[in-house]
Write a structure and sequence with these properties.
Layout (H helix, E strand, L loop, with lengths): L3 E3 L3 E3 L1 E7 L8 E7 L8 E4 L11 E7 L8 E5 L6 E4 L10 E2 L4 E3 L28 E5 H5 L6 E9 L1 E2 L2 E2 L4 E6 L5 E3 L14 E3 L3 E9 L1 E4 L2 E4 L4 E11 L4 E12 L2 E5 L3
Parallel strand pairs: 9-22, 11-23
Antiparallel strand pairs: 1-2, 3-6, 4-5, 4-7, 7-8, 10-12, 12-18, 13-14, 15-16, 15-21, 17-18, 19-20, 21-22
Length: 266
């Protein structure tokens, strides 16, 4: 499904869904819910669609952006005089133009190769560098508490600018860890190398940035590994037209810190 302009809705990989009204339905409107989460209530109202290109009946029509990080896949429709019915749209079979990146490197304990730490560009956080992806060892409660804001690690990224057919250009970066909610960062690819405030830099070949996360959580006065210390990442690069965010490139990887043990201070 290509990215295309939808009148009044911006650019997206738009997928249409038409739900037919009951036979003999005479009303000109219906009630609905349309969002990223399910709802048993249908509190909004819209006009019926009659379009021979869809069929000969009356329809409730919805358009979903399949290239969004959070497409609206939950629909509830209530026809006049009937109970509300909930639907979930499965977009797993929809292909979008998003590129699957290759050549990306990540590290949790050292700066990208050839990049110097600067406060203006990308800086190194030594407090979180006590863990290494795939590594093992023992950390004390005090050591973990001193890592960033407590139990934090840092991922340093090297992302090649060259992609098939051109150059990777984006307005935002988003990530999801272990299938959780998306965190979105407004860091456009046009950001200058010395304007990253410690979080970003670039050269003629790569984008470099860092992003912190939590690997250990404090409970009852001690730290424990979060999610067993294994973190599956989905990283997305996003283009936006102001009304719609569209994923243009993705990268998936795993950070494994399960080999670390956290002990009480001696």
């Amino acid at each position: 499904m290509p990215i295309h302009q939808s009148e009044g809705a911006g650019k997206g990989a738009w997928v249409g869904v038409a739900i037919e009204a009951p036979e003999g339905y005479e009303q000109g409107t219906f009630q609905y819910h349309f969002g990223t989460e399910a709802s048993a209530e249908a509190t909004q109202s819209a006009a019926i669609t009659e379009d021979s290109s869809i069929g000969q009946g009356k329809y409730a029509v919805f358009f979903l952006n399949a290239s969004s990080t959070a497409p609206k896949t939950h629909i509830t429709v209530k026809w006049e005089g009937q109970e509300a019915v909930q639907y979930v749209v499965d977009l797993s079979g929809v292909q979008t133009p998003a590129v699957k990146l290759t050549g990306v490197t990540v590290s949790t304990h050292e700066m990208p190769s050839g990049v110097s730490s600067t406060a203006e560009g990308l800086s190194f956080d030594g407090s979180t560098a006590l863990v290494q992806n795939g590594g093992s060892g023992t950390l004390t409660h005090t050591q973990v508490a001193s890592m960033g804001g407590g139990g934090e690690y840092t991922v340093y990224y090297t992302v090649p600018q060259a992609i098939p057919g051109g150059t990777l250009q984006f307005d935002k970066i988003a990530r999801s860890v272990n299938g959780g909610k998306w965190n979105t960062w407004a860091m456009p690819s046009t950001t200058e190398a010395n304007a990253g405030s410690g979080w970003w830099t670039r050269d003629g070949e790569n984008y470099y940035f860092k992003w912190g996360a939590v690997f250990a959580e404090e409970a009852e006065g001690s730290y424990r590994l979060k999610d067993g210390g294994v973190f599956d990442y989905t990283l997305c690069f996003i283009d936006t037209d102001g009304s719609q965010d569209n994923i243009i490139a993705t990268y998936t990887f795993q950070i494994d810190l399960s080999g670390y043990t956290i002990t009480a201070d001696e």
